Amino acid sequence: MSGEVAEVSAEAAPPAQGFRRTVALLAFALFVIVTTEFAVVGLLPGMASDLEVSLADTGWFVTSFALAGALIGPPLTMLAGRRDPRHVLVVAAIVFAVGNLAIALIPDYSVVIAVRLLQGCVLPTGVSVAIVAAARLAGTGREGWAVSIVNIGVVAATVLGVPAGVLVADMAGWTTSFAVLASLGVASAFLIIVWFPRVDAETPPSILAEASLLWQPVFLTHLLLSGALFAAMFVGYTYVAGFLGTVVGLGEAAVAWALIGFGIAGIFGNWLAGRSVDRDPLNATAWVALTLMLAMAAIAPAAKEPRLLTLVLGLWGTAHMAAFVISQVRTLAAAPEAPAFASSLNISVCNLGIGVGASVGGHIVDHAGVEAIGYGGAAAAAAALVIAVGLKAATRLRSPSVTCARR
After folding, report:
1. Domains of the chain by range and CATH?
2. What is the pLDDT of residues 366-384, one digit of tens each?
């Protein structure tokens, strides 16, 4: 390339034209963002020791990030949705890079909380802009496929990012993990500046049209479902490293490899979600909730049986990663008139679910021990399953007139 930025029409350009490179850039940006969000999951035991706080207190590194995204993400996305996606993604990458560098240089509990709050505010905007850009470039009817491809960045964060953070921390300290993330953030910003295409601007929906989603009962129920599902996921996942170390008895390196296995199972979950979600998002959500419920209920009984534990972790990892794609596509399908705002609301509610799940998980750890986190997650997954089944039934009840018309 001569350094010029190509102009791409989301309406005219077929998915193959420049799509692979664009998706690779989006996937890498999501890898950096999501690894930053979840890397602390594997680092919590070491951070708790070095910062001289309890494991439950370090859970606030997850909770604060998530709650900030839930509260600030949607209005920020409403503003960012009227900007060039390239500029939004560059700013997001820089915020994550500078924040991670600050944590690496000033390893203090208050500094970590402050940085996590700021990064949490930016995450829904960066992720929703990336997802909507990919869906537009892919074309109508291929949104689920496009989201699953971009979601490879999230899969890579689980397969490589979180375990690699544990391995780096084991060798050089957890602050080094944040320094590496800072360098990756800089690289992401640079690559987006150089290679990300200009996407022809769409006329954004009015603020009133976007805000109208907030009083649509069906859409709000979709958000409730996403929140319940992510709360279920993160009651257990936030403390999975502590569970594997304390209950199973694994060392730091073995925990890292276990998390890699969890993430590899997530690759299959991501593929399966991309193949199935466009056909019936609610049905797919119900199956994910059921799988999570069964896997997390079985994790404690399987702790001392290596083969059974491997199977349960695999099922958990498959459902965990599938939930990311399914929740996004399901919400986009429920609000096609305002996709960016709908995506941001969903990401924010998912982060709220993450925050609630991490907080509930911390409460369980404090009062019942880390070995009980699976049961708490299973209970929340059961609630998500009930919501999914109820929403599916309500959707069927609302469509008899359509069925009659076809007859």
Report:
1. 10-199+212-396 (1.20.1250.20)
2. 889 889 999 999 999 999 9
